[in-house]
Amino acid sequence: MSVTQELYACLYAAEFPAQALLRLRPELRDKAVVVLEGEPPLQTVCSLNGKARRLGITHGMTRVELETFDSVIVLSRSQMEEAAARTALLECAGTFSPRVEHRSNGNSFLCVIDIAGTEKLFGPSRTLSQSLVHRVSALGVIASLAVSCNFHVAICNVRGRPMQTAVIPPGIEAIALAPLPISVLDLSPEHTETFNL
How far apart are CA 184 and CA 159, in angstroms? Predict the structure, then answer.
């Protein structure tokens, strides 16, 4: 009896509050869009798309600071639309394996799918990756994906290389992780301070 090797696909969507709002508003995707959270007049930018970032807008900016930028679409954060988008992504991931671990934080979507033993259903890892990213794109979400035999390597790689799809062969995990910033790790503030010394 052969033992199935562990294999994980990590799906990551950055700037999830903005993506959740834009997925149902395709007419806004070509414009600079920011998402504000908080109560007026203390609202701040919690999420933005690439076009807004290229204008120089950053997280934490206030509504008053945004008024200095031309042609910026300002939307309010919607927990309901984020929940709907999250559910759609988890259901999509669940079509590839029933073993899905949801690990999102407030500003990004992240889930890890245990795809060990699914080759006969979906083909090799690269084929499965392309199929999953294509299905996520059809939902209106831009996501990246990393596949590895190591759970944590998949997570770190996908956080460090947004907008890419990577299949990391066994044995080169250290090489794949070497160029990534330390911020891809879930470090406590104390550990972050130690590494920044």
Answer: 6
